[in-house]
Amino acid sequence: MPETSFIPAADTARAYRDALGCFATGVTVVTTLSQDRPLAITVNSFTSVSIEPPLLLWCPDRSSLRHDTFVAAERFAIHVLAEDQLEQAQHFARDGEGFTQDNWHKSAAGTPALHGYIARFECQKFEAHPAGDHTIILGQVTKVTTRPGKGLIFKRGQFGGFLEQP
Predict the structure, then answer these.
(1) Is the pLDDT of residue 1 over 70?
(2) 29-42: per-residue pLDDT in tens?
(3) What strands, in cross-sheet order, belong to the sheet with 28-34?
(4) Buried b vs exposed e over 83-111: b needs ≥16 C-beta within 10 Å?
């Protein structure tokens, strides 16, 4: 297969997105309370920033109807999804609501806690910075909860699992 090079621009936006899609990411759902109701968004723009202090970041799209609520939120939780949570990932990518009595509870910190995740990071907003068509939200981690399991992965527009090597 031939190598392709290009300069990222409006006319190469699809090729740029495809190139970024070569990097596999985990799938997370970020939750917060909005007017005492739970709100969620599926994101794969999540990474660790610092161990001391414990900082994470994620980046909501500025065109999202949920963007402003998450940027204004003082507390939020990031859930790393298990590989059997594809339906939940797809749901919260389309719709930030749709919580049921069976799939969440309010955590001690006051954020919506989903069920079934493999890692959950309770965060206090540290900073937010506009960055192109997204906003970088930094959160200081106040509590971590983990459980066994394999994570849901996203690569080249598809969801999948992790193939363990012998």
Answers:
(1) no
(2) 999 998 878 999 99
(3) 37-43, 28-34, 75-80, 119-131, 134-146, 55-58, 46-50
(4) bebbebbebbeeebeebeeeebeebeeeb
Q: Which residues pair with 140 in a beta bridge?
A: 55, 124
**Which residue, among 2, 67, 81, 77, has the nearest Cα to 33 in the 3D structure?**
77
Instruction: Report the pLDDT value the prediction gives residue 158, as an integer from 0 to 100.
Output: 81
Give this prediction's pTM.
0.90
Burial of 78 (0-12, 13-18, 19+ CB in 10 A): buried
Side chain identity at 76, as an amino acid letter? F
**In a 10 Å sphere around its CB, with 0-12 CB exposed, 13-18 middle and 19+ buried, how is residue 32 labelled?**
buried
Buried b (16+ CB within 10 A) or exposed e, 121-156: bbbebbebeeeeebbbbbbbbeeeeeeebebbbbee
Give the pLDDT confidence score for residue 102 in this predicted structure. Answer: 75
